């Protein structure tokens, strides 16, 4: 009887943590010094919203962004969830509201790619998503780039085929794949790459990304001391990249833990995170 009570208490404890962490978010501040950046700027990184709503119509979410007062916003994929007939109103309303005040660069995640590629299952959901994101301030980057001349930034949105999101295994990326998909990096500009899947950070660095902006892993769903994130969406345990800052061959990756969840809307010791990222030029470049 005692064992049953203890198990019940443990279950209730974890359920409470899952619900609490699944309905709150933290603001995390990061700062990076990057080459060829013309002047300092600040942006907000949002990933893996999955149509999550905080408070009344995402008011706390929007107020947090306004408090940061970014120069622009980057969305690193999975604004919505790939469920047939999914109500995408919340995600669309969030970006349309933010686009009234800020420029937004939106790269696709695997959920957007799924509703775009599999029209047999999802019909015109992707077309509706694009149609209803109607602000001139919002740029969807699908294997395309945009320039932000004021800061000498080139920002590229990479869309990987769904084979790169396979369960249980890591699909090999062939040499030269990135250049074929999005073109080459610009050696005269500061290169930001929106790449939803962080597993290919080594390849992103070799391509020439100065800063990679990723998501997808949701912080590993549950986080444990020392071990970090427990499971990736690919069902691989203790993923190498689970959230935070990583460095590779002079490149930096900012991996967001996401703002929402899908399937099971619980997070354990792993609240959602919104990122305020400050970019600074190298001192000798700042004086040019």
* Proportion in β-strands: 25-35%
Q: Low-confidence stretches at least 5 residues in length (pLDDT < 50)?
A: none
H/E order of the elements?
HEEHEHEHHHEEEHEHEEEEEEH
Rounded to an integer, what's the Rg over CA atoms? Answer: 19 Å
Strand order of the largest sheet: 1-14-2-3-4-5
- Portion in helices: 25-40%
Helical segment tally?
Answer: 9
Notable traits:
288 residues; alpha/beta; six-stranded mixed beta sheet; 9 helices; 14 strands; globular
Provide a compact summary of the structure.
This protein is an alpha/beta fold and about 290 residues long. It has helices spanning about 1-20, 60-70, 90-100, 110-115, 120, 125-130, 175-180, 200-205, 285; strands spanning about 25-35, 40-45, 70-75, 105, 140, 145-150, 155-160, 190-195, 210-215, 225, 230, 245-250, 250-255, 270-280.
How would you describe the overall organization of this protein?
With 288 residues, the protein is α/β, with parallel strands linked by helices. The protein contains nine helices and 14 strands. The strands form three sheets. A six-stranded mixed β-sheet has the order 1-14-2-3-4-5. It has a six-stranded mixed β-sheet with strand order 6-7-8-9-13-12. The protein has a two-stranded antiparallel ribbon with strand order 10-11. The protein is globular, with a radius of gyration of 19 Å.
């Amino acid at each position: 009887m005692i064992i049953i009570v203890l198990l019940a208490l443990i279950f209730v404890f974890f359920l409470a943590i899952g619900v609490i962490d699944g309905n709150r978010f933290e603001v995390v501040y990061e700062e990076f010094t990057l080459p060829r950046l013309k002047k300092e700027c600040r942006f907000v990184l949002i990933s893996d919203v999955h149509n999550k709503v905080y408070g009344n119509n995402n008011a706390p979410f929007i107020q947090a962004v306004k408090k940061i007062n970014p120069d622009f916003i980057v969305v690193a994929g999975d604004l919505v969830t790939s469920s047939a007939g999914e109500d995408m109103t919340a995600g669309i309303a969030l970006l349309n509201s933010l686009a009234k005040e800020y420029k937004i660069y939106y790269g696709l995640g695997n959920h957007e790619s799924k509703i775009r590629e599999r029209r047999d299952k999802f019909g015109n959901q992707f077309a509706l998503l694009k149609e209803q994101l109607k602000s001139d301030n919002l740029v969807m980057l699908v294997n395309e780039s945009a320039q932000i001349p004021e800061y000498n930034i080139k920002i590229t949105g990479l869309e990987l085929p769904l084979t790169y999101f396979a369960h249980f295994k890591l699909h090999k990326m062939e040499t030269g794949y990135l250049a074929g998909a999005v073109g080459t990096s610009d050696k005269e500009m500061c290169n930001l790459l929106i790449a939803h899947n962080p597993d290919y950070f080594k390849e992103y660095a070799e391509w020439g990304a100065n800063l990679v902006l990723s998501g997808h892993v949701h912080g590993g769903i549950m986080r444990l001391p020392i071990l970090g994130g427990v499971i990736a969406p690919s069902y691989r345990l203790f993923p190498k990249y689970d959230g935070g800052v990583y460095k590779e061959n002079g490149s930096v990756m900012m991996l967001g833990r996401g703002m929402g969840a899908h399937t099971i809307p619980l997070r354990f010791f792993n609240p959602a995170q919104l990122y305020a990222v400050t970019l600074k030029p190298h001192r000798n470049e700042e004086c040019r």
